[in-house]
## 1
Amino acid sequence: MPSTTSEVCDRTRRVAHRGFSLIELLIVVTIILIIAAIAIPSMLRSRLAANQASAVANLRAISTASISYWAIYGNGYPGSLAVLGGGAPPATCNASILVDQILTTAPNQKSGYKFALTGEQGNVGSPTAGCTPGFVGYLVTSTPINVGLTGYRSYCTTELGIIHFNSLGVVAPDGATCNALPI
């Protein structure tokens, strides 16, 4: 039986309507953009919080390693992060292998923070033979590489072992300034 013209037109319309219209596509793209606008800032905040938590943990590890260095080598506290690092065993008083090499090798950066250790309060009286003289005190700092992008706060600690912070991300220049900051 021959088809009428209207039946052929209806069949053609049904076949042509198999794809998405431009409006439908724009609606889907808009929904995806709205979801991304909600999710991305939240993800960035959690990343900053993770960087800051990692910085505090690494600061604690460096502080503990500095105390261990004093106990193991009897040479006072180390004067730099390089002394706490080192290559292959055996460990020595100038390369003690007490801290992760990522932290002790220049540029001393990890998880969006830059770390530094400086000896303070003068050298110990008589260093162990063959060792770089240690110090009576130390200052360890961790500062965001890009304030606002990798972290907001800078952290510091001295031989007292209390971790202090600066909410502006500014590095503490010495132990006295560090100890005056909030805990």
## 2
Amino acid sequence: MKQCIKCGIKKPLSKFYKDIKRIDGRRSDCKICHKNDGLKRAVKQKYGITYNEFLNIKQKQHNKCAICNNVLVSGIKTHIDHCHKTDHVRGVLCNNCNRGIGYLKDSTNILKAAILYLDKHANKETS
């Protein structure tokens, strides 16, 4: 057993990454804390916001996708949506919505055309 220096919880050695430089051969922070630190750095580096800002955005969205309103599952196919021209963070999306607007090149014109297309064919599908 070893106590993580970040979360303070005692865990089995298997819950710590190996580190040959350490006396016990394991890192001082557990795998979960180490992963969370990496995530926090990545959010800041890639999107220019802190991890707490990311959590605040999710909270304002009631932990739901900003487009489809489905509940977001932390770490699983949850995306920080941003403008690719300005890098401005717009919100947090589920995987499907993030891919959808990405495939449609973040273009409101293409999205409007897609809506018109679906509306046009919706009546034919119910007939």
## 3
Amino acid sequence: MKAAILSFLKERRSFAVYCVIGVSGAALDYACYFALVNWVGVYYLLANAVSCSLGITNNFLLNSFFNFKTKDRLPARFVSFYCIGLLGLAASSAMLYGMVSLAHLDRNYSKLWTLAVVVVLQYNLNRLISFRK
């Protein structure tokens, strides 16, 4: 019973730390997206790809060293993490396209909505695949 409780708390701690790291990655992602779209004039889907890549890399490094504390096979883990990130990018881009091009919603607010969905998807996949012990 005690082991089950400790396991439950440890798993929730990992999610909480993942969320904090995710906020830093999402902030980097959104700031880059916002700058590229609004100041540089980059097409919003291309800006999304660039900004997502920066967020993915940020999150991989921080999760590797501070959350999951897995330093072995980093190149292989990064490939796995990045591939999962590409799933998130695909989901984000599809949602952005639907919201911006089809529903004519604001591209900046739409990007914020995509981040919420992608965080949950990527956490579960990365926990089970990229950072499994």
## 4
Amino acid sequence: MAEGDAELPRWGGLTEPMTVATDVVIAVLAFVFAARLGFPSAEASVARGWLAGAMLATGISAVVGALAHGTSPANDALRDGLWRATVYVTGLIGATTIGSVAFFAAQGTARTVILAFAAIKLVGFMYRATRRPEFSVVAADYGIALAMVLVGAVIELVRHRAPGMTWLIAGVLVSLVGGIVQARRVALHRHFNHNDLYHVIQMVALYAFYRGGALLVDR
């Protein structure tokens, strides 16, 4: 057991209870947003469907992440396995997010290129994650997806005044703040650490992406 693991907060038999709780809240929000975005309607769009997929993957990742954080470090094999599963699912978040960009910000050949890039990036991510299942790998992969959302949203906002773009841009910026908090390990309290604060910021970003996604139309 690593020295840091020995000092992890515990509540009863649960390790990192606040991190588990915030992960569960993220999962609930993500599943609700996925259902609302994916629900068939007269205004449904493929872009919105891809974003619903990203929300669904986010919810699954949060559930597995909660299990990983709640597992005692003494059970190294289970904790490591759950963490690896969490990392793999996050690759789907990035791929489906880029898939959404392909439909709300591109057409024709450009759309095909973006979708191909999403698929290639996902394969590359799975390879890297197998070798190095670390948060830095996850952050780099998701950062690329967010950068593409930002570029696509800014272009659509400037050229076409497309609805929902301001919300998507806000979601990217809030996610950037969350990434800085996580990277710098900013904590408010021993029992509300950088993971917990990151999760709360993620909730805000999820809401912004949901609001933007609800307004998406295909190009």
